[in-house]
Amino acid sequence: MSCNCFGASSAKRKRSTDRAHHGIDGMEISNGISLLEIEKVLREGGWGKEVRNTIVIVDIIRDFNILRNLLVTTKCFSYNELRSATDNFHSRNKIGRGGFGTVYKGTLKSGIQVAVKTLSAQSKQGAREFLTEINTISNVKHPNLVELVGCCVEGANRILVYEYVENNSLDRALLGSQSENHKLDWSKRSAICMGIAVGLAYLHEELVPHIVHRDIKASNILLDKDFNPKIGDFGLAKLFPDDITHISTRIAGTTGYLAPEYALGGQLTLKADVYSFGVLILETISGRSSAKENWGGTQQKFLLEWAWQLHEEGRLLEIVDPEMGEYPEEEVVRYMKIAFFCTQAAANRRPLMSQVVEMLSRNIRLNEKELAAPGFFQDSSRFSGPSSNKKLTGDSSTSHQMSSVPVTITQVTPR
């Protein structure tokens, strides 16, 4: 069954041919082996003792090709330039920390402020995410995507340089300490939801090849001085060609935002981002974290579960953040119902992001008869959807038995 959230079909979008393919010769790929050494082996032939105890050869060649092209398309900073810009990476300039390193505010000699993301030398995953992030967005320009300014690769240092975004992350704005919280009224929150939706529609439908972000969450949404949202952190992103329906891949993402078909079976489609966006709408409206199982009183439900329960009981407005002030009740309820359409258990029942943009921007009638219970997934022992606690129902491509899922889900990070 395809998505029937509303009647009108979305207009065709003009596709951009923006692409991203990049690279650097001196970078160590694994166990101290540099790309120059790999290039020598490739030139001379053979994979003898020169390249040993390293990652799969095909991955090395791919990373080599990405890196070798990087100098052509991406500005490269020296380590000293960035050390000077951040006052030797002083703690007072620290503005964030992610799974693979720390982000500092910096000022270049030109006076331009930037965000400097240093990848942890201890992170085994950092090099791959570094390459992915550059490969994905170095040539992509959009007002709702964080712009990559350049990078630095010197010795063991791997650093990404981004435009500086004044109001930090949506996560901090909604859930931070009192001193970090901003007064986000409904006009700001609805504009944030719309901006994220537009950015995702661009990644999914206009960019060629399409991009699935895989880690849409409040801490990866940055807010500029006017609270316009920008999607950041493309370290887990995947390119998604037109001629495939899904990618089978290792599960990666953040607890509370994972689409059930992806978390259960590793079946990645663009609809995984749609699911995460639906959860993000609920967070933005409620001012609550989706990653914490502490909503719903004594029943200890996750945010999406609790919101659906309130919807069924006709008490959905109880989830609204009291800090939001006055708001148009009908519009807020409509946004939350759109969130439920985005989080349907079966991926093919979720709308495209271009349809979500239309649903958010126009006061059109939602086809609520098509709305079923969302799919909830938290860990390998707990899944619920419209039919049972252990099985996701739908067509064969989106139905998985819990018994077929490994107990450990790799690379799922807490907020």
From TrEMBL:
<feature type="region of interest" description="Disordered">
    <location>
        <begin position="381"/>
        <end position="415"/>
    </location>
</feature>
<protein>
    <recommendedName>
        <fullName>Protein kinase domain-containing protein</fullName>
    </recommendedName>
</protein>
<dbReference type="GO" id="GO:0004674">
    <property type="term" value="F:protein serine/threonine kinase activity"/>
</dbReference>
<dbReference type="InterPro" id="IPR008271">
    <property type="entry name" value="Ser/Thr_kinase_AS"/>
</dbReference>
<keyword id="KW-0418">Kinase</keyword>
<dbReference type="InterPro" id="IPR000719">
    <property type="entry name" value="Prot_kinase_dom"/>
</dbReference>
<keyword id="KW-0547">Nucleotide-binding</keyword>
<dbReference type="InterPro" id="IPR017441">
    <property type="entry name" value="Protein_kinase_ATP_BS"/>
</dbReference>
<comment type="similarity">
    <text>Belongs to the protein kinase superfamily.</text>
</comment>
<dbReference type="GO" id="GO:0016020">
    <property type="term" value="C:membrane"/>
</dbReference>
<keyword id="KW-0723">Serine/threonine-protein kinase</keyword>
<keyword id="KW-0325">Glycoprotein</keyword>
<keyword id="KW-0732">Signal</keyword>
<dbReference type="InterPro" id="IPR052059">
    <property type="entry name" value="CR_Ser/Thr_kinase"/>
</dbReference>
<dbReference type="Pfam" id="PF07714">
    <property type="entry name" value="PK_Tyr_Ser-Thr"/>
</dbReference>
<keyword id="KW-0067">ATP-binding</keyword>
<keyword id="KW-0472">Membrane</keyword>
<feature type="binding site">
    <location>
        <position position="117"/>
    </location>
    <ligand>
        <name>ATP</name>
    </ligand>
</feature>
<keyword id="KW-0677">Repeat</keyword>
<dbReference type="InterPro" id="IPR001245">
    <property type="entry name" value="Ser-Thr/Tyr_kinase_cat_dom"/>
</dbReference>
<keyword id="KW-1133">Transmembrane helix</keyword>
<dbReference type="GO" id="GO:0005524">
    <property type="term" value="F:ATP binding"/>
</dbReference>
<dbReference type="InterPro" id="IPR011009">
    <property type="entry name" value="Kinase-like_dom_sf"/>
</dbReference>
<keyword id="KW-0597">Phosphoprotein</keyword>
<feature type="domain" description="Protein kinase">
    <location>
        <begin position="89"/>
        <end position="377"/>
    </location>
</feature>
<keyword id="KW-0675">Receptor</keyword>
<keyword id="KW-0812">Transmembrane</keyword>
<keyword id="KW-0808">Transferase</keyword>
